[in-house]
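Weekly sync, protein design subgroup
Attendees: M.S., D.O., the rotation student, P.L. (late)

Item 1: inverse folding check
M.S. brought a backbone from last month's batch and wanted to see whether the design step gives back something sensible before we order anything. D.O. pointed out we never logged the input encoding, so this time it goes straight into the notes. Structure tokens as presented (229 positions):
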């Protein structure tokens, strides 16, 4: 199990604010096709909270592994780097812009908003702007599914990424969402490892097994799912 967990370098995402440059992807987030397999397991895990007949938006989509791992009728992916959209596939509509700009989507048009390793790249005030805009485009009872590094579990590694701006714990992020009018429907403080590197292959079944464990060793990321009233 430990050897396989060391292959789970799957959750880091590039920042999507204006401070990001092309060098970030070479330094912190080079493309690795092995990430697709574990993301399929993660997508399968969160699919019960995603309506397959409706629309999904991913914020800070990076290489698009998260949004490609879930089933949805329509898919939108947002990122500032246009080069990343080549990885998203024909089924994904690209939105190339800052997350701090208004979304080019109608009110109440999206069923699910996905975000992985995203909000820590923004200040609290900026995060509030993004979450309010997400609230606007979400349908009533629409959900935001967020995977974030958990400072409570990995304080010594949290700022290894030089673009991180804001500290979040699982409880703190839930309270942040509540302060903006969201209702928490599911939360896991220990969801996935913080960041793993290995020369070993990555296997989808290993991630599925890991997510089935009652206690998850090496966890450093949390999962929070919140709902628009």
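Designed sequence read out in the meeting:
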């Amino acid at each position: 199990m430990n050897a396989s967990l060391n292959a789970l370098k799957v959750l880091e995402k590039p920042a999507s604010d204006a401070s990001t440059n092309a060098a970030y992807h070479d330094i912190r987030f080079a493309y690795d096709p092995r990430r697709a397999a574990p993301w399929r397991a993660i997508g399968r895990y969160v699919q019960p909270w995603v309506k397959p007949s409706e629309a999904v938006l991913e914020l800070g989509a990076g290489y698009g592994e998260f949004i490609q791992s879930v089933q949805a009728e329509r898919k939108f992916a947002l990122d500032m780097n246009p080069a990343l959209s080549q990885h998203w596939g024909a089924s994904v509509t690209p939105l190339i812009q800052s997350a701090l700009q208004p979304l080019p989507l109608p009110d109440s048009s999206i069923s699910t908003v996905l975000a992985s390793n995203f909000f820590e790249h923004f200040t609290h005030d900026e995060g509030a702007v993004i979450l309010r805009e997400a609230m606007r485009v979400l349908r009533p009872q629409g959900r935001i599914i967020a995977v974030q590094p958990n400072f409570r579990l990995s304080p010594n590694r949290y700022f290894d990424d030089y673009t991180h701006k804001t500290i979040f714990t699982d409880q703190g992020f839930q309270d942040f969402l509540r302060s903006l009018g969201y209702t928490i429907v599911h939360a896991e403080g220990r969801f996935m490892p913080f960041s793993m590197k290995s020369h070993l292959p990555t296997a989808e079944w290993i991630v599925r097994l890991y997510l089935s464990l009652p206690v998850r060793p090496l966890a450093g990321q949390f999962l929070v799912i919140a709902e628009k009233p």
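Discussion: Residues 2-227 form a domain with the Rossmann fold fold (CATH 3.40.50.150). Residues 1-20, 196-201 have pLDDT under 50 and may be disordered.
Action: P.L. to compare against the previous round before Friday.
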